[in-house]
Amino acid sequence: GENVEQHPSTLSVQEGDSAVIKCTYSDSASNYFPWYKQELGKRPQLIIDIRSNVGEKKDQRIAVTLNKTAKHFSLHITETQPEDSAVYFCAASPSGSARQLTFGSGTQLTVLP
Amino acid sequence: EAQVTQNPRYLITVTGKKLTVTCSQNMNHEYMSWYRQDPGLGLRQIYYSMNVEVTDKGDVPEGYKVSRKEKRNFPLILESPSPNQTSLYFCASSSLYDFEKLFFGSGTQLSVL
């Protein structure tokens, strides 16, 4: 089955700096890669996703890049704000959808004021 | 309001005492799934269901049962809970026609003593 590794497990940045979280996956059949944000005590929520036919996707301060050859994808957050503090999960799926997602172990991002 | 409702929110029980965690969605979603979240391990899929009477094992199904007799409900059953099933559980659903968006319930924190 799919295996998704996520790094780092914790990340602290100063407000206004950029944050990068990286994930690698093992199954070359995976074709859908979402990122979820989980605030303390809350449910995970989808923030951005990318498909295997696209190399990069942006949504305001958030971007995701995908390197299919190397089997890794990354989340980039620019101009970080305190409300970006949360646990971020990457995931991969061979179904092209949110079904059968395999999640990474999560990254606790702390944005220091 | 579109939502996935889990009950109970918190549950403390003892080893071997059967329990059920309920999950209900009001969005007429075909797909429903259960995850457990453990520190350092991310979210791991327990079981999923593509539609009524169709269920499949996820990555960690041992010790769990599910049923999908109605489209809106997808209960998680622990016939004989053990301490290693102490975890935070999330139910999630999505539509087969808007399959990128996975809606999570608010979670159930289970402690098995």
Characterise this structure.
The complex is a heterodimer of chains A (113) and B (113). Chain A is mainly β and 113 residues long. Chain A is 0% helix and 54% strand. Chain A has no helices and eleven strands. Chain A has strands at 4-7, 10-14, 19-25, 32-38, 45-51, 56-59, 62-67, 72-77, 86-92, 102-103, 107-112. Chain B has 113 residues and is mainly beta. Chain B has strands at residues 4-7, 10-13, 19-25, 31-38, 42-51, 54-57, 65-66, 76-78, 87-95, 98-104, 108-112. In chain B, strands 2, 4, 5, 6, 9, 10 and 11 form a seven-stranded mixed beta sheet that branches. In chain B, strands 1-3-8-7 form a four-stranded antiparallel beta sheet, with no helix packed on it. In chain B, a hairpin with a 2-residue loop joins strand 9 and strand 10. Chain B starts with a strand and ends with a strand. Classes of the chains: A mainly beta (113), B mainly beta (113). At the A-B interface, strand 5 and strand 10 of A face strand 4, strand 5, strand 9 and strand 10 of B.
Write the layout of secondary structure elements.
The complex is a heterodimer of chains A (113) and B (113).
Chain A: E1 4-7, E2 10-14, E3 19-25, E4 32-38, E5 45-51, E6 56-59, E7 62-67, E8 72-77, E9 86-92, E10 102-103, E11 107-112
Parallel strand pairs in A: 2-11
Antiparallel strand pairs in A: 1-3, 3-8, 4-5, 4-9, 6-7, 7-8, 9-10, 9-11
Chain B: E1 4-7, E2 10-13, E3 19-25, E4 31-38, E5 42-51, E6 54-57, E7 65-66, E8 76-78, E9 87-95, E10 98-104, E11 108-112
Parallel strand pairs in B: 2-11
Antiparallel strand pairs in B: 1-3, 3-8, 4-5, 4-9, 5-6, 7-8, 9-10, 9-11
